[in-house]
Amino acid sequence: MGLFLFPDEYYSSTYDIDFKRYYRRGYRAVFFDIDNTLVEHDAPADERSIRLIKKLKAMGFKVCFISNNKEPRVASFNKFMGADYVFKAGKPKADGYIEGMKKVHVGRKRTLFVGDQIFTDIWGANNAGLHSILVKQIAFREEIQIYLKRIIEWPIVLVFKLTHPFDVHE
To answer: How far is CA 127 from CA 3, 17, 51, 63, in A?
Structure first.
């Protein structure tokens, strides 16, 4: 199994991540996927996601959304957050992540990426050399092509959990 598909860590939710710990470890940027990482698929930003992004920015993190969505979706999600973003990022290619690092002026060794899909988010973050965190998707209501990818992802997640127990936070 390709190790490029394994995240560095797994959390049951984006909202369970101890971002203060990462800040103490020297990370200065957090990149996020949006759909099913911060909110349900196609949902607008909610109080919880807005509160998290504001908290991270107050801690000193630069925040950037890396999304394969078109600009109207990403811009409307970002409306109340004022973060940087890259739309039509082309994940799993590294280009969108690299563009994000240029926007926030933080290098790969000090940037975290949080996403819910292995074949786009994690593969792309690993291609870009970022610390990758996989989170369980928020909801199961998704487009059919994403649901079908999830069927292939489940065994990869299981193998990761079994072989990297100290990197699993549930």
So the answer is: 11, 22, 30, 19
CA atoms within 13 A on the CB side of 45: 21
Give residue for tokens 């909610």: 46
Name, in order, each residue with C-beta under 8 angstroms of 23's C-beta and a sequence gap of 6 or more. 59, 60, 61
114-143: pLDDT as tens digits: 999 999 999 999 999 999 999 999 976 666
Biggest CA pair distance of the chain: 40
Whether residue 19 has pLDDT greater than 90 = yes
* Nearest CA among 119, 110, 102 for reference residue 33: 119
pLDDT at 98 over 90: yes
| Cβ pair 133, 112 in contact under 8 A | yes
Q: Provide the whole-model pTM.
A: 0.90
Q: DSSP of 50-88, one letter per residue?
A: HHHHHHHHHHT-EEEEE-SS-HHHHHHHHTTT--EEESS
What is the structure's pLDDT at 1?
Answer: 46
